[in-house]
Structures are given as structure tokens and as C-alpha cells.
């Protein structure tokens, strides 16, 4: 059974059609990438799936088989935006546990769990460092770790490596695949980079921008490249 299903979703802002008749299905454990040029509606899709924006009337959204409003997804989805959003006054561990802490989980327990996860994210020995002492790639790994620690049904990653240089970005893609293969979480990864979408995705959804309208093309199924 799909974890999330969006059918004929549209979103209009005044005269602007941000998305138009978009459908997508995500099954548990998949890593699906969404690729498309700037302005094709990726952020709008992200906002709907993150529960921040309702699609227009006539759109159908289902979560784990039940029809629902986008707002109900707010508590079910963990998301990671393009900028790392680390708090500069908190060290690596305390940034990583932020989401759990806000949720009201025991801080000591969360810290212990984060400490155990550090090696996987290439952050061993950096637990007491502050964001300004880390490279861009390391900061994104802290943000990624925070998103993984927040045990939600669906992870939404919005261009998480977009601001990184090419080499760091390639390394981060491998990190993500390794971590994802270990944890088997359901991930939707949004990017404007076709190579990134093809490399990471079990399936790639291609969004295209046309003057005034946007359409989701048929999903492409690809073999995952062997690492
Ligand atoms: P992408 O993330 O792929 O660049 P967006 O979803 O941000 O695309 O935007 C798709 C279209 O919808 C663009 O033309 C954008 O200007 C418009 N748009 C997005 N959000 C809003 C908004 N809140 N108000 C008005 N127009 C918007
Ligand atoms: P890069 O694109 O190389 O990753 P950024 O544009 O993210 O770099 O960061 C520019 C500068 O801002 C860096 O010197 C970094 O130390 C600082 N910086 C960025 N994000 C944070 C943060 N969350 N907390 C503290 N400092 C930050």
C-alpha cells in the first residue's frame, strides 16, 4: 500500500498555476527523486507534502490509504530544507536532537542516541563543535542526521545538497545512499540536478515548466547504479 498518494493536484496563486494535475504515488521504503527546472512547482509540491500548503479543490491526497488534508501531514513528515538551519549557538549533538527535543523526548536519551549515530554520518569526534567550526558538507550531514533521528513515516529532502560544491555534493550523495540503505526510510528527494536525480532515485519523477502551466510526466523507472 502506498504511503502517500497525490492525485490530480493543482495549486494556483492568483494567475500563476504552480502545479497543474500532478499525480504521484510513493510506496514505503522507496527513495523517489523529483527533478525539474526552477519554477516548475517543486517547492509547491514540497509544501503540500510537508503539510504547509493545501492543494486546490479537486485534488486528492491520501496518506497510508486514508484521504486527508495536507495539514494532517505536518506531524507525519520530517523535512530538510536546502539551507541547513543549524542553530549557531548549539553544538553538533544538540543540533541533531533539536527535532526530538521539540517533540518533548528525553534529552539525555536523545543525546545518547545521537552519539551512537555520529560515525555513520562522518561526524565522530565533532560532537561538541559548533556549526561555524564545520564545513558546508558537515553541516548538511548534521541536518541530515537530525532528519533521520526524527522518526517520521516520510522524509522530504528539498535540494539538501544544492548549496554545496560539486565534490562535496558527490560525497554527500553517497552518504545519503549508504544511510538510506541501512535505515530503509521512505524518502522524497527534490532537486533541479538531473544527474543527482538519476543517481539517487529508485524512481525519478520529472516535472516540466511550460509557459503558465506545469505537468508531471510519466515516472521513469531506472536501475540503481551499483556502488
Ligand atoms: P520551483 O520550486 O520548482 O522553483 P515553485 O513551486 O517555487 O517552483 O513555483 C512554481 C510557480 O508558482 C512559480 O511561477 C512561482 O512564482 C509560483 N509561486 C509559488 N509560490 C507562490 C506564492 N506563494 N505566491 C505566488 N506565486 C507562487
Ligand atoms: P557553503 O556554501 O560553503 O556551505 P555557507 O554559505 O553555508 O557555506 O556558509 C557561509 C558562512 O556562514 C560559513 O563561513 C559558515 O561558517 C557560516 N554559516 C553557515 N551556516 C551556518 C550556521 N548554521 N551556523 C553558523 N554559521 C553558519
Description:
There is one protein chain. By secondary structure, the protein is α/β, with parallel strands linked by helices. 30% of the residues lie in helices and 27% in strands. The protein contains seven helices and eleven strands. Strands 3, 6, 7, 8, 9, 10 and 11 form a seven-stranded mixed β-sheet that branches. A four-stranded antiparallel β-sheet has the order 2-1-4-5, with no helix packed on it. Helix 5 (136-149) runs parallel beside helix 6 (166-183). The chain is globular, with a radius of gyration of 18 Å. The protein starts with a strand and ends in a 6-residue tail after the last strand. One adenosine-5'-diphosphate (ADP) is lined by residues 13, 16, 18, 36, 38-44.
Question: SSE layout and pairings?
Answer:
Blueprint lengths: L3 E10 L2 E11 L4 E5 L6 H8 L10 E4 L2 E2 L9 E4 L11 H5 L1 H5 L4 H11 L18 H14 L4 E5 L7 H18 L2 E6 L2 H7 L2 E8 L2 E4 L3 E2 L6
Parallel strand pairs: 3-8, 3-9, 6-7, 7-8
Antiparallel strand pairs: 1-2, 1-4, 4-5, 9-10, 9-11
Helix pairs in contact: 5-6
This protein binds adenosine-5'-diphosphate (2 copies).
One adenosine-5'-diphosphate binds next to strand 2 and helix 1.
GO molecular function: ATP binding; ATP hydrolysis activity
Keywords: ATP-binding, Nucleotide-binding, Transport
Family: Belongs to the ABC transporter superfamily.
Amino acid at each position: 500500500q502506498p504511503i502517500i498518494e497525490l492525485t490530480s493536484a493543482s495549486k494556483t496563486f492568483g494567475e500563476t498555476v504552480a502545479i497543474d494535475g500532478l499525480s504521484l504515488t510513493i510506496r514505503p521504503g522507496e527513495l523517489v527523486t523529483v527533478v525539474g527546472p526552477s519554477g516548475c512547482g517543486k517547492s509547491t509540491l514540497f509544501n503540500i507534502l510537508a503539510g504547509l500548503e493545501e492543494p486546490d479543490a479537486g485534488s486528492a491526497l491520501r496518506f497510508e490509504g486514508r484521504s486527508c488534508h495536507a495539514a494532517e501531514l505536518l506531524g507525519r513528515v520530517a523535512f530538510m530544507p536546502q539551507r541547513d538551519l543549524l542553530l549557531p549557538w548549539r553544538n553538533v549533538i544538540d543540533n541533531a536532537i533539536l527535532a526530538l527535543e521539540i517533540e518533548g523526548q528525553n534529552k539525555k536519551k536523545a543525546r545518547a542516541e545521537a552519539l551512537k549515530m555520529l560515525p555513520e554520518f562522518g561526524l565522530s569526534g565533532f560532537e561538541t563543535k559548533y556549526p561555524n567550526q564545520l564545513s558546508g558538507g558537515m553541516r548538511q550531514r548534521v541536518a541530515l542526521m537530525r532528519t533521520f533521528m526524527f522518526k517520521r513515516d516520510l522524509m522530504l529532502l528539498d535540494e539538501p545538497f544544492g548549496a554545496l560544491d560539486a565534490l562535496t555534493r558527490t560525497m554527500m550523495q553517497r552518504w545519503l545512499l549508504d544511510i538510506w540503505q541501512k535505515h530503509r526510510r521512505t524518502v522524497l528527494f527534490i532537486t533541479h540536478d538531473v544527474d543527482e536525480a538519476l543517481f539517487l532515485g529508485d524512481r525519478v519523477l520529472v516535472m516540466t515548466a511550460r509557459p503558465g502551466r506545469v505537468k508531471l510526466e510519466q515516472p521513469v523507472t531506472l536501475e540503481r547504479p551499483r556502488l
